[in-house]
Write a structure and sequence with these properties.
Elements (H helix, E strand, L loop, with lengths): L13 H12 L5 H18 L9 H13 L19 H5 L6 H6 L16 H4 L1
Amino acid sequence: MSEGIVTSRSKGALGGFLDEWLELQQDRLRPWTWHGYAMAIERIKRGLGKAKLQAIMPLQIESFYGEMLASGFRKVASSRPRPCATPTSRSARLSPTPSGPASSAAIRRRPPVRRPHLVRASRGAEE
């Protein structure tokens, strides 16, 4: 090899490697992160889990990802709830919120902020 490192060939499959890796990470990761990784690994194992670890080629990965997208998988930036834009009391954040069309009507939105110093003068005033 160009780096001078020789490794023995592994006969293990990608799925087994990912399971072992995830188990070793459990103490290092937050529960929510670990759960997200476990879900992602299950998806990967369905398509590539039986492939030999050292025999996986980039084209296999691209093909698998394309199949996932074609079957309706969509990449989600984060499934964790985002923090509130305005500070609220802890009890308000933890209390259940009503859902449905009636409750969405009760949500009040802030009016847009007007910044007159950023508005361009009208064309008639410039001429």
